[in-house]
Every structure is written in structure tokens, then in C-alpha cells.
Amino acid sequence: MLTDEMKMQRKTMCAELLKRYEEEGEEFIQRIVTGDESWVHHYDPESKHQLMEYRHKSSPSPRKFKVVASARKVMLTVFWGFRGNCSYGQEVLKQGNTVNSERYISTLRKLSVRLKRVSPTKHAILHHNNARPHTSRQTEKALHKMNFVVLPHLSSSPDLAPMIFTFSRN
Description:
Layout: H1 4-24, H2 26-31, E1 32-41, H3 48-51, E2 73-81, E3 84-91, H4 101-118, E4 125-127, H5 132-135, H6 137-145, E5 149-150, H7 163-167
Parallel strand pairs: 1-4, 4-5
Antiparallel strand pairs: 1-2, 2-3
Pfam family, one: Transposase_1
Organism: Elysia marginata
Protein name: Histone-lysine N-methyltransferase SETMAR
């Protein structure tokens, strides 16, 4: 449940973003990059070639086994912008480990390199949530060095983060 103060903060922030869009136009939207991390099950399905086998026409079809999620999970980090996927990373982390500032900064450096190759003259506008690794002093300094402009994100505002609708099914 949102308090009146939270509603006012959201209204103010959305009005500021709308004003910025009116001033800068489509270029503002095209510079926004959003991203997040999530644990995903690791699948190892057989390829079509692996499923093929030579058999006589009268032989029964081979049984196909249902692919199920393995016990192993991987941390998947995805960033995308106006033109689609910008960068992604997959790291095998032990269950229970999390992304810290150092790991997040390393991911941002890779993203920065990729974005500079695609659009060297434009500075990306980063939209991420308020997770601690995203807002630590160490991360803020690194973002400044990499010339990222960070869009404000209110806490407890998953509806204002497009990642939440696209990245997770639950």
C-alpha cells in the first residue's frame, strides 16, 4: 500500500521524466538502458542432432525425455535499451551468494565498453533499481567515471522498472 507521500514522490518523479522527454524528445528514450540480475535454472537440453538416430521405418519413434530444470542455477545479468539487448552476462555463483558492488561494477564496465562501440558519442542513461550494489558509494563513483547518467528510481516501485515484467515470470 502506498502512502500519500510515496504517491506524491512518484507523481513528481514521473512529471520530471515526462518534462525531460518533452525537452529532449526521442533521443532521451533512445539513451535509456535498463537491467537487472536474476537467478535462473540451468538447462542442458539435447540438440536436435543428439536426438536423431537411424532406425528402420517400422521401428517405434525414440522416446523424448522431458527437459527439467537442473539443481544448478546461474546468475543472469541482462541490460537492454531502445534497440534491444545491449549486454548480458552469466555467472555461476554458488547458491546463496549475491551480487556485490565489485561484481556489479565489473558488469557495468563490460556494458560501458559495449555501449561505446555501438554509440561512442552518446552517454547512456542507466535505469536500475535501488539494490545496495547499485547504489553504494563505490558503484556511484564507478558510474561517474564511466559517464553514466542514472535515472532516479523510487524504492518499492517495481511498476516503474520495466525489467520486472520482462525478466521474471512469477
